[in-house]
Amino acid sequence: MCDVFMETVKTGGVFLAVRVDKGGQSVRGACGIFFWTFADGTYKVTTDLVGKTVLSEGQSGTGAYSWYTLSIAVTGQVVSVTLDGRVLWKGTVSLQQENGWVAIGTNSFELAQFDNFAVMAE
Prior knowledge:
Layout (H helix, E strand, L loop, with lengths): L1 E5 L6 E8 L10 E8 L3 E7 L5 E6 L7 E9 L2 E6 L2 E7 L8 E6 L5 E4 L7
Antiparallel strand pairs: 1-6, 1-10, 2-3, 2-9, 3-4, 4-5, 6-7, 7-8
């Protein structure tokens, strides 16, 4: 779970990710579950950082200069993503890795703020 604040109007975006398999200089090839929200009011759930494999996308109502709470819950292969407590997508994801890193980031190195970052295991 993480609170996010996008500072770039229209083109800004942030992500919260789980089960990420790569970092450092290999990060462009990272796979996992990435929950993106964008300042243009859309969201996307992908299985890779570059967004090549899209699981879900749609309208989120997000914009710049407001705080939002993003959350990803994973139980086995069942994934649920929420925005401010509202489920945007729930589905089954088949990944090679059953564990990995948790990550936060931006769409293209623009300014954004992150707060109250928390990882909870059950």
